[in-house]
Design a protein that fits this description.
single chain, alpha/beta, 2 domains, 15 helices
Length: 350
């Protein structure tokens, strides 16, 4: 068995059929699909069982209790039998030809293959961003190029579905230390020693269902603390390289706080829990005030600011339009500027 597509899932009955349909239609004799269910309670298991009965290459493992996304993916890799594991997500879809393209990339026996993606609206009907990785050709990262691999791919790899990794490599590296981080795969890839045999497929082979992450309610904690803390923990990369991936404490930037306030992710409770303990005296004033700005006002301001920037920000604008503080004024501003820049036929203006 050459490739195992490993899906860790929890309560995705509404979406997982579309994901599985996009995979089983491409399965080849040297490919298996393993779904590890972290004790779903919404009928996910019944849906997956129908695929097991129809497709011999599909395996289903149900856990008695949920161990969290990191440990569930680790368990899925342990249960897999392929030489390589593609850590696929449970609500996104593969584009036609994706598995064949990855199998071709595996013929050179890399340690890791990074699979590029496009982002789509939550119903997958329209493209928001055509490519998540801002490169224009496939790339091979060899000896001495670990930093280039980190800079080019680390930020994108916050999306676990883009990871194809040699199973023996995964099992040989530290994993338990990253349980609870939500990014075990990033910890495995960029821990010491650095990986120096990686490939990037720049063609988007996955369509990401934007705005559907299970942890949306924790987004401020994740992107302001968990993610930068993880990136800045890697010892093999310089501070300059880490800065190119993310800032060490993004919550110290006022515009980042306003953006999170506009999303509804940053609140007075968030200030009390995450920011207040790190600050003292007058340094608390601005974060305290931002946490209390009316959400609709913050949403309008953030949409106007991002719309006026010379560099398009389609994912950020789309997220603001999905936010609980989104309102007719902010939606009108986003639509107006998007149509001026890209024309009336642009997908995300609909």
């Amino acid at each position: 068995m050459k490739l195992s597509l490993c899906i860790a899932t929890l309560n995705r009955a509404k979406f997982i059929s579309e994901t599985l349909d996009s995979i089983v239609s491409q399965i080849e004799p040297e490919v298996e699909l393993l779904i590890l269910d972290g004790a779903s309670s919404d009928g996910t298991g019944e849906i997956v069982e129908r695929y097991v009965q129809r497709w011999p290459a599909v395996r289903y493992v149900r856990e008695a209790t949920n161990s969290g996304v990191d440990q569930d993916y680790d368990k899925a890799v342990q249960q897999a039998v392929g030489d390589y594991c593609w850590l696929m997500t449970d609500d996104d879809v593969l584009r036609p030809g994706a598995i064949r393209r990855v199998l071709e990339a595996l013929t050179t026996q890399p340690d890791v293959v990074v699979v590029n993606s496009e982002t789509r609206t939550a119903d997958l009907s329209a493209v928001v961003e055509t490519s998540r990785v801002a490169l224009y050709a496939d790339r091979v990262y060899g000896a001495g190029e670990a930093t280039e691999f980190f800079v080019d791919c680390a930020n994108y790899l916050s999306f676990i579905g883009g990871v194809v990794i040699k199973r023996t490599l995964w099992l040989s590296r530290e994993r338990a230390a990253y349980y609870g981080s939500l990014f075990i795969h990033v910890g495995v890839i960029f821990q010491t020693p650095p990986i120096e045999n990686a490939r990037l497929i720049v063609e988007p082979l996955i369509a990401i269902r934007l705005g559907n992450a299970m942890w949306r309610g924790r987004s401020f904690e994740i992107w302001s603390f968990k993610w930068p803390d993880l990136v800045w923990s890697f010892k093999d990369f310089s501070d300059a390289a880490k800065w190119r991936v993310c800032q060490p404490q993004p919550w110290r930037r006022v515009n980042a706080l306003i953006y999170n306030r506009a999303l509804g992710a940053y609140t007075s409770d968030g200030f009390d829990q995450f920011i207040g303990p790190h600050l003292s005296g007058a340094s608390k004033i601005v974060p305290w005030v931002v946490a209390r700005i009316p959400g609709t006002l913050a949403n309008v301001a953030a949409v106007a600011y991002l719309s006026l920037r010379p560099t398009p920000q389609p994912m950020a604008l789309y997220s603001l339009r999905l936010a609980r503080f989104a309102n007719p004024v902010s939606r009108a501003i986003a639509t107006l500027f998007h149509r001026r820049r890209f024309g009336r036929a642009a997908a995300v203006s609909r």
